[in-house]
Structure formats: structure tokens, C-alpha cells
Amino acid sequence: MGKISMAASILWLALVALAVVGEAAIVEHTFVVHEMNMTHLCNSTKVYVVNGQLPGPQLDVVDGDTVVVHLVNELPHGVTIHWHGVRQLRSCWADGAGYVTECPVAPGGNRTYRFDVSGQVGTLWWHAHVTCLRASVHGAIVVRPKDGRYPFPTPARDVPIVIGEWWTLDLVELDRRNLDGNFEDDPLSATLNGKLGDLSNCSGVPEESFVLDVEPGKTYLLRFINTALFSEYFFKVAGHTFTVVGADANYLTPFRTDMVTISPGETMDVLMVADAPPGLYHMTAVANQPPPPDLQIRALTSRGLVRYAGVRADNGGAPVPAPLMPGQHDTMPSYYFRGNFTGLAFPSRHRVPAHVDERLFVTLGLGSICRGGKKDCKLRRSNETITVATMNNVSFHHQTAASLLERHYDGTGEGLYTEDFPDRPPRPYNYTNMDLIPVGPLEEVLEPTTKAIRVRRFKYNSSVEIVFQSTALLQSDPNPMHLHGHDFFVLAQGLGNFDPKKDVKKFNYHNPQIRNTVHVPRVGWTAIRFIADNPGMWYLHCHFEFHIVMGMATAFIVEDGPTPETSLPPPPADFKRCGTNGFSKP
Ligand SMILES: *[C@@H]1O[C@H](CO)[C@@H](O)[C@H](O)[C@H]1NC(C)=O
Ligand SMILES: *[C@@H]1O[C@H](CO)[C@@H](O)[C@H](O)[C@H]1NC(C)=O
Ligand SMILES: *[C@@H]1O[C@H](CO)[C@@H](O)[C@H](O)[C@H]1NC(C)=O
Ligand SMILES: *[C@@H]1O[C@H](CO)[C@@H](O)[C@H](O)[C@H]1NC(C)=O
Ligand SMILES: *[C@@H]1O[C@H](CO)[C@@H](O)[C@H](O)[C@H]1NC(C)=O
Ligand SMILES: *[C@@H]1O[C@H](CO)[C@@H](O)[C@H](O)[C@H]1NC(C)=O
Ligand SMILES: *[C@@H]1O[C@H](CO)[C@@H](O)[C@H](O)[C@H]1NC(C)=O
Ligand SMILES: *[C@@H]1O[C@H](CO)[C@@H](O)[C@H](O)[C@H]1NC(C)=O
Ligand SMILES: *[C@@H]1O[C@H](CO)[C@@H](O)[C@H](O)[C@H]1NC(C)=O
Ligand SMILES: [Cu+2]
């Protein structure tokens, strides 16, 4: 494995040299996905990784480059890789969403992904997009500007900060348990760049911490990625502040903050100046969660260190300051943090469509279905029901036999999916009534739901507006919603129930942020708008893993436009179609 990644990085260096002289380069890697034993907290655990690395290898590209990744599957499970946030303009076949755009690569099989990264600058990432494997099969995609210039002072160095989780439960087993409505499993710890940090120990021996080495006065570009399955995180560094300059590979109007808040699926580019008295400073990442009566998971934290050059390991005898973090149940700092996001306007490219062709209002919540296909069962989280997650009272059914894109392309979608995803909730209620959190009588009538594959079709070039409403139905989680193949404008967010009469007035048409993932606040709403300009079949889902597994997902079909340049091309010559066993053909 070492050899492969070494060869890949030498190749990469050669290719970057090309890119520097201004030509679009081909960035080529081989990703071998395999099992490995890793020891943390005195326990050897089997993990799924790429090229022996956790986090996996970083893809370094320049805006305009082509990426070619040869995926070799040495796992006993099927796998796909999704290039999270990459626009994939007219390359839906390379999106890597399991059973949506392709059937997974069989054990022992392989596949080549080929796509352009164009018109995007900043941080994206890649991850497995089948079952829960993305908890350890993931890595950064760093996209640098063609001319090397940023709309902010050039940093001395950039450093990915991958927030993750350390799981000892087998991830395929975790998926099986989530599908069965069980979401009570926890990771053991949070991680920063794969390190659990010194707050975790086994028999008093602390775990290794992530260390950021800095020189006084220099500026660092921290590239945050939240790869965690379950939690939004707060992140701080004692004695330092941040300037947030980008998110999801789009620039933001810079704003100052002393805390970064990031939800699963999001990325954020953040400048930090090493302007404190030279010394050691703790950095802390803490997961937040809604307070009881919502179901509680273990408090998750990882701690690292900022180390100024030349400072002794004992900090010259002085205590190492640690940042003061909000309480894990305080979700309001997340809401206010997100209120500060505006896009750095590029008037030509980034004009918000003034008209709306399709308007959707989508509720996000939980529900339940009867176990074993029964018609009637005891509700309120009894063992006769399976808890599922829904969008507009539809729980996405994860079939494992076909690719929705292939069937759409072949015109054989009938019988597999229907195109009637509802534009609004079928049964309006007080979405944010906290009494809906179990166990009470109120939710009983709203709780029953159905599993189905109901997708939504859009004409090419239509302007789509969606208001996502997080509900309190059985729980009050926020929902980081991620759309494949498109970036969208985030027009506004609010708490409580969305009220079209007064809330539309808050929409920012002037300089909204442009994102591929948006954190819809806890018992609140977020409004987005985008142009459906990328023909194909695109997954839309919550990036909390238990929510997606439980069905908080759907897919958007974007029709072909009038010309070849506005249509989805046929699958690439080496594209491996679905076989009869639910894996791609060899
Ligand atoms: C991991 O450890 C188990 C138990 O010791 C062993 O059977 C297995 O072969 C190891 N796997 C790898 C990939 O080294
Ligand atoms: C990919 O799969 C093909 C067909 O099974 C095989 O011939 C080839 O050797 C494989 N390539 C790699 C790199 O594993
Ligand atoms: C070690 O991990 C296994 C799962 O891989 C788990 O069953 C066991 O309880 C763990 N042991 C300890 C001491 O944490
Ligand atoms: C080890 O962890 C335990 C429980 O998390 C904690 O109480 C203890 O202080 C830690 N010990 C050290 C030496 O860090
Ligand atoms: C911006 O963030 C600050 C600090 O968290 C907060 O007080 C303020 O309300 C935020 N602004 C908006 C518009 O939400
Ligand atoms: C369901 O729960 C009831 C009451 O808690 C218990 O008696 C019964 O054995 C359970 N059934 C199954 C199939 O677990
Ligand atoms: C909805 O529920 C919230 C929270 O319980 C409550 O404050 C609000 O008054 C309710 N709204 C309506 C229209 O009943
Ligand atoms: C969902 O639909 C079912 C009927 O299939 C209905 O009983 C239930 O009340 C609906 N729930 C919501 C939240 O709309
Ligand atoms: C897309 O729509 C815009 C505005 O509605 C229009 O100006 C443009 O010509 C359309 N493009 C295509 C390729 O249909
Ligand atoms: Cu969710």
C-alpha cells in the first residue's frame, strides 16, 4: 500500500509542476480500499481504509484539472467513492453515489473515476457512499486557484483539519442496526486528523494529539472538513481567533469569530494568525446535541495542540491554556455563527435567479413503519415498529439491486421508482411543537409513514426553491442537507415554523452564500435556490449518517437541455454497469 501511495504522490508532484505553468493537469491516484487493524485505547480494531491511511490520501488539484482515480476494492463489501461537492457538470456517471448513480464495486473488483474540477476553489472531500463506511473511508480534496491568488492574504501554509469519529463497532454492522431503527450506538471518541487526543486515555496513557506547528506572526489556512457520522462540532483554539473565508469551495465575505461550527458534510476555509505570545495552546473540538428528552449520545471531544516554533514540550513550566467551550446542549452558537455567512459576490457568475419555476417545502423528521411488513402495530417506539427518517412523510427506500441513474438513462425506471416526491407536507401540523418529542400522545397520529423511492423531476435550466423545515417529530435534530451535482444559494434561515408571509422578506438576493451542504437549524428552517443545470440523477440527503440510512433522502432527475452541451453524455466507455447481483459488472 505504501508503495502505491508513494508512487501516486510522486506522480502528483510531476503533474503539479505541469499545472504551475498554466496547463490543466491530470491528477491520477490509485485508491486501494482494504481492512487494517488499528489500536486505540488499548483495543485493536478492524477498520476500513484507503492506502493504509486514516484520514485517507488528499487530492491536490488546481481549478481546471482532471482527476482520475483507480479504485481497487479489497474489502469483503461493495464500495463506491463520492466526490463530495465536485460539481460533476455532465459527468453524473462519476458521482459515486451507491445505487443512485452506480452499483458498488464488488469485493475484488475495481473501477476508474474520471472527472473535471472546474470553477471551484477551496476545500471539498471524498468519501465512501455505501453503508456507513465513510466514517473511515474519506479524505480531503484541496482545489487551489489557477493563478495561485486568493481574495485574502496568502497563507504561509494550509492545513487540513479533518474532524471525525473513532468507531470500534464494525461500520457494516452499524449500518444494519441503523436500518433496523436503532440509533443508540456511539463512537468512542471524536478525532482531529485521525487523532483521539490527550483527553482520551487507556490506563492513564493518553492518546496522541494532533499538533499544529506555527511560527509567530504567520497566517495559516485551516481547511475544516466534518467527516463525522453523527454530530455537528464546535472548534476553538485558546488565545486565537479566526477569519472564515470560504465554505464548500466557494468564497465567503470574510468574518471574524473565535469559534468555528461545522456540521457533517460541510467544509470551511478559515484563516488563523499565530499572533499570541509564543507557547502551547490547546485546540478543542466538541460535539453538540439537542438536550433531553432527545435521545443522548456520549459527549464527544478531541483535543489537539498549537505549538509555536522553539517552545519546549513543558511550555516552559506554564500551564497550557484550553479554550472555554459552549455546553454540548447549547445549539444556539451554531445558529448565530451561520447567520454571519454571506457570499463574496461575483456579479457575473453568482446572480440569484429572480424567478422560481418550482417551489418545494420539505419537512425533515422521523416516523415509524411496522416491522415485518405488518399493517397494524403498536406505535411510540415499541419493538413492533422500526424508526425511520422522512422528507415530506416519505422515507427513502434503499434498494440494493439497481442504479437509479442507469434505469433513468435507459428509460426503465418504471417499477423501481416513481416521480411523485411531494412538493409539500401531505399533512400540515405545528412542525416545531416540542411536545412531539417522545413519548407522548401527540406524535402518535403523525408517526406512521411509508418507505418508497419517490423522486422529483426538473426541466433543464429550471429555477428551484426549497425551504427545508427541521421538525420536532420524535426528536429535534438539526439536518445538514446535501445536494449532489449542484451548488445552491442559501437565502435565509430562521427558527420555528417557516412563515411565507413574513420570512420571504428576509431572503438575501444580494450576496447569499453558495453551498452544497446547508445546516438546517434545530427546529428551524433554511431556504435555498438553485438552477437545475446539470442533467442526471442527483441524490439529496441529510448528512447525518443515521438519518440517511433511515431514509432522509430523495433524488432529483434533471432533464437534458436542448443541445448536446446541455445533455448528459452516455456512460464513459469503461463505465461498469450494474450486474444481476447488485454489484457493478467486472
Ligand atoms: C486483524 O487482527 C485479527 C485478529 O488478531 C486478525 O485475524 C486479522 O488477520 C488482522 N487483520 C489484518 C488485516 O491484519
Ligand atoms: C481491474 O479489474 C479487471 C477485471 O477484473 C482486472 O483485469 C484488472 O487487473 C483489475 N485492475 C486492478 C488494478 O486491480
Ligand atoms: C474492543 O473493541 C471491540 C469491538 O471491536 C469491542 O467489542 C470491545 O468491547 C472493545 N474492548 C474494549 C476494552 O473497549
Ligand atoms: C484517563 O481518563 C479518565 C476517564 O476519562 C480520567 O478520569 C483520567 O483523569 C484520565 N487520566 C489521565 C492520566 O489523563
Ligand atoms: C454573527 O455572529 C455573532 C457572534 O456569534 C452573533 O452575535 C451575531 O448575531 C451573528 N450575526 C447574525 C446576523 O446572525
Ligand atoms: C417486545 O416488547 C415486549 C414488552 O417490552 C416484550 O414482552 C416482547 O418480548 C418484545 N418482543 C420482541 C419480539 O422483542
Ligand atoms: C407550535 O409549537 C410551539 C412550541 O411548542 C409553540 O410555541 C407555538 O405556539 C405553536 N404554534 C402554533 C401555531 O400552535
Ligand atoms: C404520514 O402518512 C401517514 C399515512 O401514510 C399518516 O398516517 C401520517 O399521519 C402522516 N404523517 C405526517 C407527518 O404527515
Ligand atoms: C436558461 O435560463 C435563462 C434564464 O431563464 C436563459 O437566459 C438561458 O438562455 C437558458 N439557457 C438555456 C441553455 O436554456
Ligand atoms: Cu437529518
Strands in their spatial order, largest beta sheet: 10-9-14-19-16-17
What is the gyration radius calculated from CA atoms?
23 Å
Portion of residues within helices:
under 10%
Q: Could you say what the CATH topology of the largest domain is called? A: Immunoglobulin-like
| Gap from first CA to last CA | 22 Å
Write down the overall geometry: globular
Decide which structural class fits the backbone: mainly beta
Overall tally of domains: 3
Number of strands: 34
Multimeric organization: single chain
CATH superfamily of the largest domain: Cupredoxins -  blue copper proteins
Shape-level CATH architecture of the largest domain: Sandwich
CATH class of the largest domain: Mainly Beta
- Characterize the largest beta sheet: strand count, sense, and whether it forms a barrel: 6 strands, mixed
Helices, by number, come to 6
Ligand inventory reads: 2-acetamido-2-deoxy-beta-D-glucopyranose, copper (II) ion
Residue-averaged pLDDT: 93
The stretches of 5 or more residues where confidence is low (pLDDT under 50) are 1-21
Could you describe the 3D structure shown?
The chain is mostly beta strands. It has 3 domains: 1-149, Cupredoxins -  blue copper proteins (Immunoglobulin-like, Sandwich); 151-345, Cupredoxins -  blue copper proteins (Immunoglobulin-like, Sandwich); 348-566, Sandwich (Immunoglobulin-like). 9% of the residues lie in helices and 37% in strands. It contains 6 helices and 34 strands. The strands form 8 sheets. The protein has a 6-stranded mixed β-sheet with strand order 10-9-14-19-16-17, with no helix packed on it. The protein has a 6-stranded mixed β-sheet with strand order 23-22-27-32-29-30. Strands 13-21-20-15-18 form a 5-stranded mixed β-sheet. A hairpin with a 2-residue loop joins β16 and β17 (250-257). Mean pLDDT is 93; it is low at 1-21. It binds 2-acetamido-2-deoxy-beta-D-glucopyranose (NAG) (9 copies) and copper (II) ion. Its cofactor is Cu cation. It catalyses: 4 hydroquinone + O2 = 4 benzosemiquinone + 2 H2O. GO terms for molecular function: copper ion binding; hydroquinone:oxygen oxidoreductase activity; oxidoreductase activity. Pfam families: Cu-oxidase, Cu-oxidase_2, Cu-oxidase_3. Belongs to the multicopper oxidase family.
